[in-house]
Amino acid sequence: MNIKFLLLLILAMVSWGFSWPIAKMIAGSVPVPVLVFWRFLATFLSVIPILFVMRLPIRLKSGKDYWNVLIGGIIYTLYNQFFFLGLKNGLPGAGGVLVTTLNPIVTFFIVFLVQKKSISKRQVLGLFFGFIGGLVILQVWKISIDYLLLSGNLFFLLCSFVWATLSLNSQKTGKSMSPITYSFYVYGVGSILELLFCWNDPNFWKVWDFGYTFWFAIFYLTVISTTFGTTVYFYAATRLGSEIASSFIFIVPLSAYLSSYLILDEVVQIPVIIGGALAMLAVYLINSKHKKKETIIS
What we know:
Blueprint: H1 3-26, H2 32-53, H3 63-89, H4 92-114, H5 121-138, H6 145-150, H7 153-172, H8 179-198, H9 212-240, H10 242-247, H11 252-264, H12 270-297
Helix pairs in contact: 1-4, 1-9, 1-11, 2-8, 2-9, 3-7, 3-8, 4-5, 4-7, 4-11, 5-12, 7-9, 8-9
């Protein structure tokens, strides 16, 4: 695996970690469909200059491509709905842990069932360490089942399952279009879908009355976390496979907790450090077999 590409992917995952507390800051400012629409529209517009600079084609080659981007837009819209609904009541650190530790497990499971791919013992061990690391960061021994269901974290659980399907969908498009082109259509479809639900909402234009904090959050969630972070992830899914790319999401929980401490003054405890170390070990174990193959081929 190219070192520069690896560092870029890690940076993208860190940007996702910071997106949790930043999104929490604006999660309750307006109804969720309105918030998601403006995020999607801003992201859609921010991708256009990249398409022109890189001279990437935007024309889809087949009906299958149209179908894939439509499904991708629907899935990503659902993910963002669950994302902000969970953040309205739940904690950003807990949400980052729940989503990002369960997502690779769900993705590997789906790949195993649908694509009939084998999973090595090393990868299973990595998934185990990643899951345990997430539980340690969350300090699950202090949390009751009722708390997980009633605190908004149920939406975070739904996020993990929805994102796994999005990873597989983005992988399918890798041979026929650029990940950036895929992102362009996904955000476009998402904008249209959300507009149908919020165009007559009295809060639709209210966002223009908000100050610096709101628009900084939108800028970060749009340009940094989504345009940069998600596009890099989609690209990784096409190059490495969705199950390998999703394993890097184990980096997000620690960065989500640390950024929550910096931005929202959440207390960072020793379990966070231990769990983060286990998650990083998981990334190594899951990818070690893949990296060995690349060395032999090159």
